[in-house]
Every structure is written in C-alpha cells, then in structure tokens.
Amino acid sequence: MKTLDELYQQMLKRAAEGKPVGVDGDPKLIDCLAHPDDHPLIWRVKPCLCPPDEPHHCQEACDWGAITSGPDGIAIDDSQCVGCQACVDACKLDTLKTRKDIIPVVQELHDYDGPIYAMVAPAVSGQFGPDITMGKLRTAFKRLGFTGMLEVAVFADILTLKEALEFDKNINSEDQFQLTSCCCPMWIAMIKKLYHQLLPNVPGSVSPMIAGGRTVKALHPKAKTVFIGPCLAKKAERKEPDLVGAVDYVLTYQELRDLFSVTNIDLASLPEDNLPHASEAGISYAYAGGVSEAVTETVHQLNPDRQVDIKTRKADGVPACKAMINDILAGNRDGNFFEGMGCMGGCVGGPRAIIKKEEGKANVQAYGKQAAYKTPMENPYVIELLKKLGFPTVEEFLERSHLYDRKFD
Ligand code: SF4
Ligand code: SF4
Fold first, then answer.
1. 350 in ligand 2 pocket by Cβ < 6 Å?
2. Strand, helix or coil at 117?
3. Fewest Cβ atoms closer than 10 Å to its Cβ: which of 179, 308, 370, 407?
4. Which H or E run contains 312?
5. Number of H helices, E strands in the chain
6. Minimum CA distance residue for ligand 2 atom 6
7. CA-to-CA dists, residue 258 to 9, 33, 145, 304, angstroms
8. Where are the alpha helices (DSSP H) in 35-133?
C-alpha cells in the first residue's frame, strides 16, 4: 500500500499537470489529500498500536485537551486542536501526520475563473534560497497562476499602528498592561483556553493574515486568498468561527517548495517583479521580539511625551510563554507590554520553515534593512491601501472600520 507521502507526490504532480487527481491507494488517505477541509488538522494515517492501558505519548503531549483515547486508539477533537504539532512529534510510530492543503489550491489555480492572491508571511525571506528575492517569488506565483502576491508584513504594519494606538489610549498608569501579539494563534489560544482571566488585557485585533484576507476580499469580492507561511497553527486559525471566510487556504513553505519542485520552476532564473512593500517594523514580525520593537518605535513616534513609557517583555516557545503569564498572574510583571510567540525564535522557528531559525532571522533582518521605511507611520503604501478602502487616514480607519477588529469571549 502506498504511503501518504507517495500519494501526495503523485496527486500533486497530476494536479499541477491539470489532470484528475484520482490514483490507486487507500481511499481515506486520498480523500484527506483531495478534500482536506472534510478532515481534521492532524490525520491519523494508520491504526494506533499503543496498548490501551498504557499512557499515549501524543495525548500526554497535548496541552490543549484535544486528544481522547478509546478501544480504537486516539481521536482528535478538531475544535480544540490549535495545530501545535506536539502530538505528531510525540508519536514514535509515525501514526499522525499534519494536514496538507496544496492539492485543492493547485486545482483552483487551474479551474477558478476569479482572482487568486498569494499572501506570504514575513518569515519568507531566504526560505527558498539566499538569492531568491521577493520580486522573483512574485514572478513565480504569477507563473503558477496566481493573480498576484502580497506581503502580509504590510498588514502587520497596519496592526502595529492599531496596537500602538490602543497602548497609547489604554495604558496610562503603572498598574495597566497589554498582551500582544495578535499574530500568533498559539499564543492567543493559550490565553483563551488556559488564562481566560487575562483576555481583557488583549486588544481585540485580528492577525495580519486575517487582516490581509479581509482586505483583499473587501477590494475584490470574488477573490480567493491563499496564505503561505511556516505555521501549522494558522491552518486552525483560518477556521475559527469568528474569522472564517477571510482566508480560503493556508499552505506552508514546505508545501509551496513541493509545488515549485513538481512544476520545475527555476526560481533563480526568474525576472524581478517588485511592488512597494512593508516597513522594517512590519517585516520584523517574523522573529521573536519584532512585534515589541515595532510597537515600541511606533508608540514613541505617536506620543514622544508619554508619562508611562512602554516597557516590553517577550517570551517564545510554549513553556516560556506560560512562565511569563504565570509571572504576570503572580504580580511579577516587570513590564507593561507582553509579547508571546508559540515557536522558539518566533515564526522563523515555525514548524514548517525550510531553513534554520537563526538563518531565517538574519535573512528577515537583512530584508528589513532594505525597506524604504522604518515604521508604518512613514509608509505611504499603508495610507494608499487605506484610501482604497475609503479611509483618508489610519486613525479614521481604526475608528470607523471594524475590518480588523476581533471580539474575544
Ligand atoms: S496539534 Fe497540538 S493541539 Fe492539536 S491535537 Fe496535536 S498536540 Fe493537541
Ligand atoms: S510563532 Fe509559531 S505558532 Fe506562532 S504564528 Fe509564528 S509559526 Fe505560527
């Protein structure tokens, strides 16, 4: 019987050639690959072999209570799963696999008659090779059939302004504090599920991914949106009830690399296709500490004479995030702006990045240095985008539009 990976390669190649993706093999695995939305985020690809009366490593690894076990092995409750991948890593028998969404995307690129936009996460710099620039990637996406490629860092710019304005409005005494970052679904899930009492300290903002999807759909109602990043948790975020509809597909850099490979696209030889892009601050969302730097700089630009200065503290990786939250709850705050990222190093350390996190961070920082603008306050492309949405200034957009708002309950 063919493995999931063998079926994946065969079906992806057929999809890229515009052929029907039906192949011989296990019908359940084929259905997972062809219709991932009908299946959970984590796929059980073979029977569980752990004895029922012994602890299951996957269940022990899941901090979110998403796994139950019974006589037929384990079951995963998709509504509780945040996509941290701890269970997949914990299963020594290779029984669990993470979802792949690229086959339906390739079929859409062949069949859909409306626009399809690729939205790349800020960690993308250098993921496909040291010489593969943003301009070459944009050309590659168009060759694959996408209408265009957007840098999600531009939406990180707008959200930086939103977070900075919220900080300036809400944090005016030593006992007040704000938790960010809206960009990491694992961090937000941690607060929602495990530390509910801190939700009032989290500004109600969507992530840059959701902001990007909503903006594209506001400007092009027939468009489909495909986010591409290093993250699995984004695949779960896309389906959260209050966010559903903004992003049609979430792919990983590894899935995109597989598509470049089966279509024989030689990225290095492609011409540049450049557009104005994000500020250095928006690009820095890709690594741990970047959001804090971006918001700090912007708060200082917005209101240089604040009585209560912004004092940041950050944590990356689930254990460090939990330790930081426990400190806050115990009264050892030592800060008033707290940034949490679910992965070590931030998104450059995401589970589906292609290169090492240190290399990823260095590439992102080098790309950020080339940006024409340091913060979103200086970035005319942000203003231009908001004008297209009908708002002359960022302040007016944030006051009158609810496009990027989120209500936590
Ligand atoms: S991916 Fe994470 S949250 Fe989902 S079932 Fe596995 S361990 Fe639990
Ligand atoms: S830090 Fe990890 S879980 Fe959080 S958004 Fe980035 S890649 Fe995803």
1. yes
2. strand
3. 407
4. strand 312-316
5. 17, 11
6. 347
7. 8, 14, 16, 48
8. 57-61, 86-90, 102-111
- pTM here is 0.95
pLDDT in tens, 320-346: 999 999 999 999 999 999 999 999 999
Gap from CA of 87 to ligand 1 centroid (Å): 5
Q: Where are the domains of the chain?
A: 4-99, 100-409
CATH class of the region 4-99: alpha beta
* Closest ligand relative to 321 C-alpha: 2
33 lines ligand 1 (CB under 6 A): no
Which pair of tokens denotes residue 146? 């996408």
CA-to-CA separations, 264 to 103, 152, 259, in angstroms, rounded: 16, 26, 8
Give the end-to-end CA distance of the chain in Å, rounded to a whole number: 46
What is the 342 CA–ligand 1 centroid distance (Å)?
Answer: 13
Distance between CA atoms of residues 81 and 71, nearest Å: 21
Beta strands at 148-151 and 116-120: parallel, antiparallel or unpaired? parallel
Rounded mean pLDDT for each run of 10 residues along the chain, 409 residues in total? 94 96 93 96 91 87 90 88 92 93 98 97 96 96 97 94 90 92 89 92 93 96 97 94 96 97 96 88 94 93 92 94 95 93 95 95 95 89 89 83 86
230 ligand 2 Cβ < 6 A:
yes
Rounded to the nearest whole angstrom, what is the distance from the C-alpha of residue 318 to the centroid of ligand 2?
10
pLDDT digits (tens, 9 = 90+) for 185-219: 999 999 998 899 999 999 889 999 999 999 999 99
Tell me, in angstroms, the distance from the centre of ligand 1 to residue 146's CA. Answer: 32
Number of the ligand 2 atom closest to the C-alpha atom of 234: 8
Question: Which residue's CA lies nearest to atom 8 of ligand 2?
Answer: 231
